[in-house]
Here is the input.
Amino acid sequence: MVWTKQRLNNLFFFLGCAACVVMLFTFDVSFVELWQHICHAGYWLIPIIGIWIVVYGLNAFAWQAIIEGNLGKKAPVSFWRIYRLTITGYALNYATPVGGLGGEPYRIMELSKDIDKQHATSSVILYAMMHFFAHFWFWFISIFIYLALVLVGDMPMTTAIGTVLGIIILFCLVAFWIFSKGYRNGLVVYVLGLIGKIPFLKGWSRRFRGKHAEALRNIDAQISALYSQDTKAFYTSLILEYSSRMVQSLEVMFMLLLFGIDNGGGLDGMVLTYLHSVLIVAFTTLFANLIGFLPMQIGVQEGGFVLSIAALGLSAALGIFVSIICRVREIIWIAIGMALMKIKE
Here is the structure.
C-alpha cells in the first residue's frame, strides 16, 4: 500500500483521538472524583488552560526563528500555520511513546508542503534539538534557583539533596557537551550509525544511509550551519524555548494560589510562590523525560508532581490535584490539536 500524505494525516488523527480516549480511562481516580477536582478548579481552569496559548506561541516563534535561520530568509509559511503545526505536533507527541514518534514526522510531512523536504527535515530536527536543549538549561538554572532559596532559608539542604543536585548538574553538563557536538557536526548520520548497531536494524540502517547519503549529509550540513553561521536565530530560539518553560510554571502557580498557598501574599510571597512553581515543573519534567518511553507518560507525570510538591513540604493531596488538572489540560489541548489537524488552509 502506498501511504499518501492524506492517509498519513488520517493515521496521525486516529492516534491522537485514541490517545484522548486512553487518557480518559487511565485516571487514577473515578469519574466522580475527577469531576469534583474539575469543580474545585472552577474558573481557575480558564487561565490554567489559556496560559498554553502563550506557551505554544513562544514555541512557534522559536521554531519560526529556526526555519528562517535555516533557510537564510523569511519563511515562506505563515506564522499561523507554524503555530497550528506546533500545537498539533505536541498533541501527537503526547499520544505516542518516546515523544516525537508522532509529532516530528507529522511536522516534516506538513512543512515539506511549503519548503523543500531537506530543509523541512533539518528545521524540524533542529527545533526538536532546541526543545530538549532548552529543557536542560531549564533544569540546570533551576538548580541555582533552589540554591538561592537555600541561602535565604526557604529551602532545606542535606547531604542527600546536595548529592542529587550535583548529579543533575553533571547530567546537564554532559548533555551540553553532547548537544554542542551535534550542533557543530550534525546529528543525523551519527544517529543512524548508532541505530545500525541495534540487532535487526543494521541492514535497514545501511540501506537507508546508502540510498539517501547525499540528502543526509545536506541535512547535517544545514544543522551545523545554523549554529555556526546564524547565531542570532540560534539564541533567539533558545531564549524563546526557555521562556516557554517559565511561562508554563504559571500553570502550577495558579493551582497553588487556588489552594491558598501564596507564602504570605504580597509581592515577595508571589515571587516565592512562582519560584516554587518553577522548581515543581523542573523536577516533574526531568522525572518524566527520564522515563519518557511510556505513552503520555502515564503515571510518571503524576508521580513527579506528587514527589516534587511533597519535597517542598506541601501535601500529597495537592500533588494529586495538580497532576489531575494537568492531565485534563493535556486532553483538552490534544483535542484542540486534532481539530486543528483537520482545518484546511
Q: What stands out?
A: The radius of gyration is 21 Å. The longest helix spans residues 117-151. Residues 63 and 127 are 6 Å apart (CA to CA). Confidence is low (pLDDT under 50) at residues 293-297.
